UniProtKB/TrEMBL annotation:
Domain of life: Bacteria
Entry keyword Oxidoreductase: yes
Domain ABM: 7-95
Segments forming a coiled coil: none
Record Gene3D superfamilies: 3.30.70.100
The protein's name: Antibiotic biosynthesis monooxygenase
Alphabetized GO MF terms: monooxygenase activity
Keyword Oxidoreductase: yes
Keywords: Monooxygenase, Oxidoreductase
Pfam families xrefs: ABM
Amino acid sequence: MAGQNVFRVMLRMQIHPGMEREFEETWYAIGDGITGHPANLGQWLAKSAEEDGVYYVTSDWVDEPRFREFERSERHLEHRTRLHPYRSGGSMTTMRVVYAMRGART
């Protein structure tokens, strides 16, 4: 199945030691600030199995212009402000999904 031009954003976040649980809970509690946006297709939080305190947030968007619109919004600023105290560093990568294939269990 084609990726249908899905725009994917992946954040890598380094969380201050000892703040991981609170970060996870806060991320979950305010997640609808992202998923409630009409252009958002979903988001996921994953914890690195190899690096202590490293998390990855992946979110899918209908297209890049709508993501960029959200990125400049007050809603995004509020979301970032709530998560900022937990972060000691991070980076963002963007990409376009070329193909999407569902597994047998979905």
